[in-house]
Amino acid sequence: MARVIEANKEATVLQPPPFRISRVFHARREAVFKAWSSADHVKRWFSPETYSVPDAKVEMHVGGPFEVCMRSPTGDEHWVRGTFVEVTPQRRLVIDMRVTDSAGKPLFGAHTEVDFADALGGTRMDVVQTYTLIDPSMAWMVAGAPEGWRTTLDKLEKEVVRMQGGAETGVRSVVHATFHLERTYDAPVARVWKALTDEKAKQKWFGGTPGRWELLERHMDVRVGGSERLKGRWEGGVVSTFDATYHDVIPHERLIYSYVMHLDDKKISVSLATMQLKAEGGKTTLQVSEQGAFLDGYDDAGSREHGTGYLLDALGASLRD
Q1: 201 neighbors 191 (Cβ within 8 angstroms)
Q2: Rg of the Cα trace of the chain?
Q3: Residue 300 and residue 122 in contact, taking contact as beta carbons nearer than 8 Å
């Protein structure tokens, strides 16, 4: 329920409860953060579905402007006039915004906090907006924030794809890349092998963030010709699916498998992965190599390498339990 607060001695304003939304983007934090950094980027995505942004001014530094004109399908215009009050590269933005009508009349304020964090498959972006309703007749605009932000973040997802070299609808692209990672764990090789091949042990580290990701399906059968699937729904509604087939399984020594990643019904990559384990006293060194075909801009080698490193660190943490 909205509460009334004193704005000054002559007037009061309504302050609805804060609004929160999260979305996981299959891209590195640098790309998602950069999408907020200039008018060229912001004009492509910072408006709800059916709205456009004909004009914007963005200077990403403390005290810099964040000004966006949103135009409705009927031609009505509302301005978001904001100022950056906190800028921590690739991690956090805070913007004090005020929404006005075309004549400049203030309608409501929106103190906006945006946090960026690594997540399985890419970057999690958390948005919290705290509203101050100046014109009570505009309460409907604040009430529409959940749907407005949902479709706005759909646009942001497309912009991030474009920024990474993704193709427009109907045009296809493939980027081929290889990466190598290595981790040494303070655990015997048998325990690391179990973390890679036992379903209960693997679910401790191979999955989405608890509370922000809903498990839909999980099974694994680690043998030559066996398969593995992990499917889950992120807070923003996007469903990611990992489908793997095992081609070489040498206990305590080597795994080779191919896997396909989907976002909803979009195939975003096809990869070949090799994991090699080496016992060194009571410790284990794990070497991971991947060769990938990244499709239509929905992933790139840098993002996948970063995400795989995140998972290998989570594997290490699970071995300490």
Answers
A1: no
A2: 23
A3: no
The tokens describing 98, both together, are 């005020």
Amino acid identity, position 140? W
User: Could you write out the three-class secondary structure of the chain?
Assistant: CCEEEECCCCCEEEECCCEEEEEEECCCHHHHHHCCCCHHHHHHHCCCCCCEEEEEEECCCCCCEEEEEEECCCCCEEEEEEEEEEEECCCEEEEEEEEECCCCCEEEEEEEEEEEEEECCEEEEEEEEEEEECCHHHHHHHHCHHHHHHHHHHHHHHHHHHHCCCCCCCCCCEEEEEEEEEEEECCCHHHHHHHHHCHHHHCCCCCCCCCCEEEEEEEECCCCCCEEEEEEEECCCCEEEEEEEEEEEECCCEEEEEEEEEECCEEEEEEEEEEEEEEECCEEEEEEEEEEEEECCCCCHHHHHHHHHHHHHHHHHHHCC
Please list the residues that pair with 69 across neighbouring strands. 55, 79
Query: Residue 286, CB half-sphere, CA atoms under 13 Å: how many?
Result: 27
Q: With b meaning 16 or more CB within 10 Å and e meaning fewer, what string describes 47-58?
A: bbeebebeebeb
φ, ψ at 240 (rounded to 5°): -105, 145
Tokens 């529409």 map to which residue? 144
159: tokens are 């912009």
| Residue 288, number of CB atoms within 10 A of its CB | 19
| Structure token digits, residue 134 | 């100046």
Provide the residue type at 156 as one letter: L
CB 126 within 8 A of CB 114: yes
pLDDT digit string, tens, across residues 89-113: 999 999 999 988 777 888 888 999 9
Between the alpha carbon of residue 8 and those of residues 5, 13, 35, 157, 276, the distances in Å are 9, 9, 37, 40, 67
pLDDT digit string (tens) for 208-247?
Answer: 877 778 899 999 999 999 999 999 987 767 788 999 999 9
Confidence of residue 5 (pLDDT cuts 50, 70, 90): very low
Copy the structure tokens of residue 216: 């839909």
State pLDDT tens for residues 136-149: 777 777 788 888 89
